[in-house]
Design brief:
The strands form four sheets. Strands 4, 5, 6, 8, 9, 10 and 14 form a seven-stranded mixed β-sheet that branches. Strands 7-11-16-15 form a four-stranded antiparallel β-sheet. The protein has a three-stranded antiparallel β-sheet with strand order 1-2-3, with no helix packed on it. 42% of the residues lie in helices and 28% in strands. The longest helix has 64 residues, at 433-496. The chain is rod-shaped, with a radius of gyration of 50 Å. The chain is α+β, with helices and mostly antiparallel strands. Helix 7 crosses helix 10. A hairpin with a 2-residue loop joins strand 1 (7-11) and strand 2 (14-20). It folds into three domains: 7-44, no CATH class; 51-284, Acetylcholine Binding Protein, Chain: A, CATH 2.70.170.10; 285-390 and 405-497.
Length: 497
């Protein structure tokens, strides 16, 4: 029994129908029958292109209806723009110029009412990409932008069959940011990017004259037109989550939050809609602590250690001047970081100025103590230096020796004064060569006695100067240590609060 088999081969514009019959010499003999293409078969094999959709819409480079005016069929109907800005990188935050440079990813969608087609008529094509020059686009204006960077942008828009147009773009923004540097470098900054339309208002009040007159005066008619509305596509939680997922680099900052809010403001009886994106960032202070705060603190400890250097030598004064000059260099570095104007004085400026003032006060105290030490005779200074060694060497009979020595000095001085007067009277009464020689010797002894008295009185004055210098040094060291402790505790509490 012969078996009939059917094989269809589709060719462009034809159908080959192969029908096998009962074999005579071969197993079967194919017969080729050519037929015209059936309408049903043609629909299932239709080939469509994006150009077919563009020709259906009459969207060509010469067509200006899609790009010249706002894409609405009724001018009273607003164009709703859904916007999303995602932070992908924090490139720079400059405190001196108060600028914030982020790298953002902008997503925007709106409806073009002149675009519409049936996907079933075009092989299920639901969306396609067209050059940006063919379509109208919203005038996206960023109020804080101060400099426009040439960034590589996507040259196409995506549009769907229902008229929705999608735009994606990456942008490098240079915007202003009012920073609060009171707690620098432990600060948290909030920088805003305000997005809106520069031309199309949210609700515009139109004024025109009526052809009717009332008592020989024109009648003014008012009506409002809503042109463009900005609506955030994502809320604050979703925008923050997306930003953390696509974040490339943060530099010296930790990204905390991206808050999305809407705001309306009025100007000349017109209402404008804006979307405000607030970027919250916290500074990473480790670099500033190592490069600035710790060196200043080390210089302060060195200045405290300089109190243990001897006062009558020049090393102490020179050491303090060197530390003060090193502190001045750090203040110059701070001047390059902080802005010239600020609402509040930064705590780091207070930290440096107070420490610099304490070091300057310490230098003035060292100059005063050095002056008092220079007033004392060298013998008094030498006696002060060797005082501890002599006390240790003569500890066993120190008090007795000092008592006996002072007694001997007093007795010798008194006896000498009592003996010199009668001898001088006897010599003056006698008139002989021996008496003249004796008189000269007595005069020399009297001069020597006066010199010894002056030297002893000078030692007493030098000893008093050294005592005053020692008291001033001890009192100022206690005051200096207490002031440094209290100030450092206060400044660090304010920083961490």
């Amino acid at each position: 029994m012969p078996v009939a088999l059917l094989l269809l081969l589709l060719l462009p514009g034809k159908i080959l129908l192969l029908v096998p019959f009962a074999p005579t010499s071969l197993p079967w003999e194919p017969v080729c029958v050519c037929a015209a293409v059936c309408p049903g078969v043609a629909a299932s094999t239709q080939v469509c292109s994006y150009q077919d959709v563009l020709e259906h819409l009459n969207l060509t480079a010469d067509s200006s209806a899609f790009r010249l005016t706002r894409p609405v069929l009724d001018h009273r109907r607003p164009t709703v723009v859904q916007l999303d800005i995602i932070l992908s990188a924090i490139l720079a935050v400059t405190e001196k110029t108060q600028t914030f440079i982020p790298f953002v990813w902008t997503l925007m969608t709106w409806t073009n009412e002149r675009i519409s087609w049936d996907p079933e008529r075009f092989c299920g094509i639901r969306e396609l990409s067209v050059p940006k020059s063919l379509l109208w686009k919203p005038d996206l204006f960023i109020y804080e932008m101060i400099h426009k960077h040439e960034t590589a942008t996507t040259p196409y828009y995506f549009m769907s069959y229902n008229g929705n147009v999608y735009s994606e773009q990456v942008m490098k923004l240079v915007s202003t940011c009012q920073m609060d540097l009171h707690k620098f470098p432990f600060d948290t900054q909030r920088c805003n990017i305000t997005v809106g339309s520069a031309i199309h208002c949210g609700e515009c009040v139109c004024l025109h004259f009526s052809p009717l007159t009332l008592r020989r005066s024109r009648v003014f008619l008012l009506h409002s037109v809503k042109e463009m509305r900005f609506i955030p596509f994502s809320n604050s939680t979703r925008a923050t989550q997306f930003s953390r997922e696509v974040m490339l680099t943060q530099g010296d900052w930790d990204f905390l939050q991206l808050m999305v809010t809407s705001r309306n403001f009025s100007f000349k009886d017109q209402q404008w809609e804006q979307i405000i994106y607030t970027f919250t960032m916290k500074r990473r202070p480790l670099l500033h602590i190592i490069n600035f705060l710790l060196p200043v603190l080390f210089f302060l400890f060195l200045d405290l250690a300089s109190f243990f250097i001897s006062d009558h030598r020049g090393e102490k004064l020179g050491f303090k001047v060197t530390v003060l000059l090193a502190m001045s260099v750090l203040l110059l570095i701070l001047n390059d970081i902080l802005p010239s104007t600020s609402n509040k004085t930064p705590l780091i400026a207070t930290y440096c100025i107070v420490i610099f003032g304490l070091m300057l006060l310490s230098l003035l105290e060292a100059i005063l103590v050095t002056y008092l030490v220079d007033l004392a005779p060298p013998e008094s200074v030498g006696l002060k230096e060797d005082k501890q060694e002599e006390a240790k060497a003569d500890a066993w009979d120190g008090e007795d020796r000092q008592t006996s020595s002072s007694s001997v000095c007093r007795v010798t001085t008194c006896e000498t004064e009592q003996e010199l007067l009668p001898m001088a009277e006897q010599v003056i009464g006698a008139d002989s060569p021996e008496s003249r020689v004796t008189l000269l010797i007595l005069e020399e002894l009297r001069k020597l006695q006066n010199a010894v008295k002056e030297q002893l009185s000078g030692r007493e004055e030098g000893r008093k100067c050294l005592q005053w210098a020692s008291r001033i040094n001890k009192a100022f060291f206690i005051f200096y240590l207490a002031a440094v402790s209290l100030f450092l505790s206060f400044i660090f509490i304010e920083w961490m609060r």
